[in-house]
Structures are given as C-alpha cells and as structure tokens.
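Hello Y.,

Per our agreement to keep a running log of every chain we model this quarter, I'm adding this entry. I've kept the format consistent with earlier entries: sequence first, then predicted structure.
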Amino acid sequence: MRWNRIILLCMLALPLALQHSTPTNSQSSFYNMSYLYFGALNTYVDQVEKTKGSLNMVSPNYFDISKEGELDITWRLQTSFILEMQKRGIKVVPFLANHWDKNAGINGLENRDKLARDIANAIDKYNLDGVNVDIEGIDHAYRDEHTDLIRLLRKYIPSDKEVSVAVAANPNGWKLGWHGFYDYNALAKYADHLIIMAYDESWESPESPIGPVSSLSFFERSVQYAINQGVPKDRIIAGLPFYGRMWKLDGPNLEGQNITGKGLSSTRVEPLVNQFNGSIHFDKNTQSSYATFNIPKGQNAFVGSTNLTEGDYVIWFENEPSISAKLSIPSKYGIKGTGSWALYHETPDTWDYYLSALNGTTNNKEQMKRIGSGTLGIIKGSDVRLRSNASLSAEIVQTLASNTITKVSGQSVSVDNHSWYPVELQDGTSGYVSGSYISKFELKELYGKNRYETSSLISNSGWEGEAQSVVIGRGDVPIDALTGSVLARKLNSPLLLTESSKLPENVKSEIDRLAPEIIYLLGGESAISDAVKKQLQDKGYEIERISGNSRYDTAVRIADEVGINNELILTTGIESPDALSIAPYAGLSQTPIILTRPTSIPDEVRNIIEQHNITQVTIIGGEGAVSGNVEAELEKMGVQVVRVKGSNRYETSVAIARHYSDELNFSDLYFASGASYIDALPGSPLAAKSGAPIILINNGTLPSAVKNFLQNDLTATPNVVILGGYGVISDSTRMNLFKMIK
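Predicted structure for the entry above:
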C-alpha cells in the first residue's frame, strides 16, 4: 500500500498482506485474509467476528522497523487476542512495516540478519503464526537485499510458520522505482505467499487520474503479471481495498486545500451521499462503483481533519458489485485466494456476499436468506409448532420463534378445525403451520443485471400487454427521468432507461414487445443522442423529444406536457432520491415535479409560476436540499408554500407517505435504496398505478423512521415490492425489513 499517498486517520486505509491455514468448515475453499490496523484494541475480536467465519488469517501491525533498522514490537500486540484467534482456527501473522519510511526500510535491510533473527524470536515468544513482510517505498537498488531478508526469515523461522511478503501490484511490468523493488520470481522461492497489493491504481496526488482504486482490469492484470513471472499459483494472494478515494471537482475547498484522491473508508461513503443527497453509480467498463454529491453553500463535513466545503465531489470506492467482480479472479486463474486492506473499513453487508462471490457459488447462508418473490409468512407468537403434516397430531418438526420468515408454498388446508399453510423455512425445512399464527403478504422483487434490464423487467411486470406510449430517460444521469415519471403515469406508460449513445438490447426488446405508437425521449441530444432516436425511428416509431436548455428548463417542458393546474412540486435539481419518493403521489394527482437550484429559483421556474398563476408549491426535502431562500422567494411571489421533509432522505420518504396518507394506498409498499436509487426510478409509475408510496431504506440497519412507520402507521399487513437487486439492498436488509412488518 502506498503509505505516502494516504494520510493516516482513523477512517483511512493503506497496505496489504496474507497467509495460509487449513480452512474451517465455515471458511472458503479459497484462502482469505485481512489486515488489522484500525480501531481500538478492544474492538479487534469484534472486527473479526463481523467477518462471519470468512478468514483463515489476520495480519495485525505487531512488527515495525525502527529508524535504526531494529525490530520494534508495537503497542498493538495482545496475547489474549492471539489466543482467541487460534482457538477459532484463525492464524495470526503480523505484518512487518516501515510505514513508507525509506531510511528505516534501508537500515532494516542492511541489518537484515539480526532483524530476521529478532523476528523469529518474537514469533516464538508470543506464539505467533509467522510474519508478513510489508516494506514499501524503497527503489529497485535494494531488490536483492529485500529478497535476501525473505530468505533469512525462511531460514530462521520454523517451517510450520508462515513467511509471506506483500508486493506492489505491477500490471505494467515496471523494472525501476519501488515497483522494481519486488523480484516476484526470486521471492517465490522462499515465501509461502506473495500478497499482491492490487490497488492504488489511483492515488493521492494532483497527478493521479480520477478513477477506481482498483478496476477489474488493473486487479486481473496484477495477477497475470505474477503468474507470468513464474510465481506458483498456489502462492499468489490478490489483495483488494476496502477503501476509496475522493476528489473535489471544482477547485480547492474554502481553506485553499485541494482534495485530489484523498483516501477514506468505504463506510464513510453512504453517510456522505445521504447527508448531501448524492447518488451511487456503477461504471461497467471498469466494474467499479463511484458516488457523486454536491455540498451546498454554507454547509460542510469533515473526513478526518479535511474540511469538505461547498462544491462537487466524486468518490471511487468498493461495494458489492465491484468487490464481487474482483472475487471472480481467484477461480478464473486458480490462485490461492484473496486478502483485503483492511478490517474496520468494510461496509456491514460485505461478509454477506464475500465468500459466495469468492467461491462462485451460493453458500448455505445465502440460500437461507434469499427467499425471492412469492407469498411470505411471518410467524406471530412464540414457540409456534411446525408440523410434518396438516394435523394437530402430526409430528412436530421444530418450534418457531416469533417473526420467523417463511415461504408459503401452497394453498391452505382445513384439518382439525384449523387452516394449515404449507411453509418452507430459510434453511429448506418444510412443514405446516396453523393459519392462526402466520401473517401472509406478497413479495415481489424487481431487478435485473443492471439498471437497464431492471427497467425492462419493471415494465414487463406492470404492463403485461401492449402500451400506447413509452417514456425513455437516460440511465446514467437520471434527473430528467425523475421529473418524467409523472408524464409516464399520465400516459399509463412504462418508464424505460437507456444509455446515452445506444439503446440496450433488453430495452430494445421490451419496446418491441410493448409496440407503442409514440415514444417520448426525455432530455436533449447530450442526454439521449440522435443515434438512439434514429434506432427507434428506423423501426417505425413516432418520436417526441422533450428537452430544454437545462435540467430546469426540461422539467418545465415536461410539466407543460403533463398539464399544469394551480400546484407544483419542487425538488432539488441536484441528484437526489426525493423526487423518487414523491413520484407516486405526483403521478397519482398529476402534479408536475419541477426542479430548483438549492439556494435560488431558476428563471424557468419563476416564469412557469407566474404564467400559470400557481397558488401552491410543495417543497420536498429539508433546507439542505432546498434552502429557506427558495421558500422565501416563493412566498414573495404570493405562493403558498408547504414543505414536506425529514432530517434525511429516509425520513423524508416516510414524511411523504404520512403527509399524503389519505391519497396513497398502504396495502402495497414499494422499497428502494436511498443511496443507489436509479435502479428504482422506473418503478415510480408502477407504484403510482397502485397508489403505493416508495419508502427509502439503506443497506444495513433499517432507518429508525422506517421502523416506526412499519410498526405504527399500517392497519394491515401490506404487500411488498422491492425495486433493485441484492447489491443495493442486501439479504440481511431485506430480512430486517420483513421482520418489521406487522
């Protein structure tokens, strides 16, 4: 890891390393390790606990090289932790670091015989399982000394103990500089494993490209280089990052500091996105995720000591789709396994999918969680008996706890004055439960491999026959499509998403199935190109493009197409899911959604208010999204202003549902990710068809506002529709959601 390119703060991330052991039953058939560096010592066991049995080895920072080149046992070493890990069958292989101190590293190499002997003695004294050498920032002139240190360690450390070495990723085959410091072929003669630090494709510098920390291509080529250097595949471990990098796109912050590739924990991304109404995207070319957000004037946030002030930001980081893509590489090339920098920086859902993605299979844990669409049943009451047949005299298969989630697998059967439902548990166990103790609801999950396929599947679900019209919005920049959802409802039309320059094949097929008479394109040529328009015209479809000079103007023109009475809904023109949450009511009532700047009303909006004698404007979101200045401007124009808001996007979605509870129908509830909401956008006209609200949830613990809504605002058990796949709303999040439904 490039320590000189990351500021060490409690939320940042840096190096990498690994080692081998015999996997336990809960562990992967591929080797898996992670570093321990962050957090208080009393959290170390808990950090490992969160990996759910995924690790073969942990590598804490117990060994440093002092400036004089001597071994320094760090304050982090805990014999109690070592014993606890070994009880669990997890090896403890500390990493030896110079922390990018060039002089310390060189002195250690020149003092390598004593350094190696001291490390061997420390391993014996503390009953450690080996050492992982992670010396960085030294150039190729010391390549042979580095290799010789590994040779000496292998000589002095018992053969049943681990000797591994962390090496810089070298997909470009550089021979000079710090990349040339690592002689892959020679190191493999002595090291049990080479741990490739397959990250820092971008780094903290004005010279760094804005982009992924580790794209799939970078990760894969790093593995290929090791193989081509003659490293045995069973000695190769590919390390991936649990951190991201952030750029401020419009110059320095108000303190004059440029933010160019600043490292930060993956756990920090979603809170920033939520706080500033940003969005999360996936770049299919690099197979990497990134987040965008705008901090309004007068607001700020801190990442460590760095002040994020007003402006536009992008963070390239790792989440389920990007990590899962990289986890396919070990099986593709037959290498030993993976490692990660570092625990404490992974998002809570990481270990729900890590092993299954690494093994290319669905593990038992996942099979238990992933119930899928159909009739679900929630067990009501404690110690409810699951019987082998529909009878009070039938054998008791097991006793079920309250809130157990089941799949109802057939129609009820009346026996012994009871209605019995056949059910299947998450682990595959089946039986019958008395209808008195089960609350049923219908679950529909709508998602595809990407947002375009998701839009096609939603269309197919809601419009089984043909449709007279189709509305199409751009999939990567969704702002026009957000306001176009009201038009789609007016036309009783599905809302499909397209790439800017070409129509995805699955969307093309869905349009052909729908056989519309007219297709509406939302946005100008820079949003949806004339090439897409021509593709559709060549098939004989009538095309109408609705576009303006800006997103604000386009929203106004869409409003004209919808029809304007005396009310408008106003949301921020900065990407935000607020427009998604209000879309069902807006579509149902045919109230146009208009966009505004956070602190001032665009002229286009001012004109439409005056021309149509608008008497009421409903602002969606708090002052962080639409400021009090906008509200004051509206009131000066003689407009009655109503604001529907929460303290965050999740609370706002609940506030919308409550505010319009007389108009909306709570017998169906739609749920979408508040962080990665574009997949859910095509579901807004579908929700409007049934008058259902769209509630936003995060990927992890359910927001308290959502819990409160589910427990207190529903008079009956609703049917549930989830918009988006398991990458944006995980298995565990879904199960937590179902258990909250009464």
